[in-house]
């Protein structure tokens, strides 16, 4: 893989008011002639960050299918997507210039992470930025379902005055069962307790309880206990069909169900049957196994038309506050990787957090994780008479990544030797 286009340096304050890096304002680098393609209505904050670094940014409203991506990525260096765009191995093979993919959302299962790692393409996401927005949606849905507000508002729109307390309850004193106690699940736990709810949770990972929340020993125990079950699991393949007829049957009679995690983890045919039977008193669903690709496309689901069922178009994280923060956060990670070699919070490459480089020269070397590579790298620097002033190393699975800061640039012959190594995935200089 060849090097980058021309590098320029400048003192720069980001549009967000944040300096790139920490401490005193560093000397920043940006590249000339680099391109970024951002899909699915990514917030303008991302555009501002990337354009401030010299990127030419193309912003598109919708997602792209595989064939469309293959056509569009020929000279694109950075790709930004959300949950509706799938990046396959075929797409990656057709994108020789692609350096990094930013998932402007929580999940990354829409990207072939193994294939991306094999090609040295970094993948970054926003694991925390929309947490509060998702939590507030779930809390609103819990209250709306408990008060049967979907039915009430529909009857008012139909011209029917139905002032009745039948089937309407407070959430105070009710038990919320959270399945998946990660970033969203823990914050939901805290807010629900503030409303006076009791909280139980189940997670396969060993996570500490927040507040007065209580861990259950099994999913079955949670389902038998909870008045509301809210799913917050990830989209790994093993979670497909995780929640089906057996789990719905195990829930308390007249309990409520919420899924704001992934569409493919729930059997919605079973959910429909249990809502129609009256066993499930209400449900709220924000995610679906197959979702429309573009704004305004037709949406179909077997859950349409059911009483006390809230359907929303995957908007859990779709608030202005969350989208602005996600835009800034992921764009910063993409820029930090492309312009300084930082892989901090990468989901598929070895993590190396690089310090600012106001002076000197930097070499990033992504390589196969085998013995002797680092020794040879350092020998090349020594043979070139180049003084190493800092070095940062990390490994992950089959890959190793080392950032070396030196007082002088490596000679072209030394760089050529490293790039020619059978263990080299790529070598980049700054």
TrEMBL record:
Keywords attached to this entry: Amino-acid biosynthesis, NAD, Oxidoreductase
Domain named D-isomer specific 2-hydroxyacid dehydrogenase NAD-binding: residues: 140-316
Domain of life per record: Bacteria
Record-linked InterPro entries: ACT-like_dom_sf, D-2-hydroxyacid_DH, D-isomer_2_OHA_DH_cat_dom, D-isomer_DH_CS1, D-isomer_DH_NAD-bd, NAD(P)-bd_dom_sf
Domain D-isomer specific 2-hydroxyacid dehydrogenase catalytic positions: 37-347
Pathway: Amino-acid biosynthesis
Keyword NAD among record annotations: yes
Similarity remark: Belongs to the D-isomer specific 2-hydroxyacid dehydrogenase family.
NCBIfam families in alphabetical order: PRK11790.1
Annotated protein name in UniProt: D-3-phosphoglycerate dehydrogenase
Organism: Nocardioides flavus
Taxonomic path: Bacteria, Bacillati, Actinomycetota, Actinomycetes, Propionibacteriales
């Amino acid at each position: 893989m060849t090097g980058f286009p021309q590098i320029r340096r400048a003192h720069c304050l980001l549009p967000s008011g944040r300096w790139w890096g920490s401490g005193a304002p560093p000397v920043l680098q940006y590249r000339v002639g680099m391109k970024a393609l951002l899909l699915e209505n990514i917030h303008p904050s991302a555009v501002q960050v990337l354009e401030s670094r010299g990127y030419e940014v193309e912003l598109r409203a919708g997602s792209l299918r595989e064939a469309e991506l293959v056509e569009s990525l020929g000279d694109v260096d950075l790709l930004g997507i959300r949950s509706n765009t799938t990046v396959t191995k075929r797409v990656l093979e057709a994108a020789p210039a692609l350096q990094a993919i930013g998932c402007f959302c929580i999940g990354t299962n829409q990207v072939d992470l193994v294939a991306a790692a094999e090609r040295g393409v970094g993948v970054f996401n926003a694991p925390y930025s929309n947490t509060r927005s998702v939590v507030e949606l779930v809390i609103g849905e819990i209250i709306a379902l408990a008060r049967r507000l979907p039915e009430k508002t529909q009857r008012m729109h139909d011209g029917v005055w139905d002032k009745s307390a039948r089937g309407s309850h407070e959430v105070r004193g009710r038990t919320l069962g959270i399945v998946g106690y990660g970033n969203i699940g823990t914050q939901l736990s805290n807010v629900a307790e503030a409303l006076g709810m009791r909280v139980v949770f189940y997670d396969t990972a060993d996570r500490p309880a927040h507040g007065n929340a209580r861990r259950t020993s099994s999913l079955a125990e949670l389902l038998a206990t909870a008045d509301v079950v809210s799913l917050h699991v990830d989209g790994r393949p093993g979670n497909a069909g995780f929640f089906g007829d057996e789990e719905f049957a195990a829930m308390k009679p007249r309990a409520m169900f919420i899924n704001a995690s992934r569409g493919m983890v729930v059997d919605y045919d079973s959910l429909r049957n249990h809502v129609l039977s009256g066993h499930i008193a209400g449900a709220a669903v924000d995610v679906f196994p197959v979702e429309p690709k573009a704004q305004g496309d037709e949406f179909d689901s077997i859950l349409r038309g059911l009483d006390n069922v809230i359907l929303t178009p995957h908007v859990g994280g779709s608030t202005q506050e969350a989208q602005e923060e996600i835009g800034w956060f992921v764009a910063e990670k993409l820029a930090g990787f492309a312009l300084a070699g930082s892989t901090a919070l990468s989901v598929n490459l070895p993590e190396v957090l690089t310090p600012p480089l106001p002076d000197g020269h930097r070499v990033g070397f992504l390589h196969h994780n085998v013995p002797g590579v680092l020794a040879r790298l350092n020998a090349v620097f020594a043979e070139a008479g180049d003084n190493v002033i800092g070095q940062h190393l990390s490994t992950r699975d089959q890959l190793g990544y080392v950032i070396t800061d030196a007082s002088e640039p490596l000679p072209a012959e030394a760089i050529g030797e490293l790039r020619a190594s059978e263990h080299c995935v790529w070598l980049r200089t700054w």
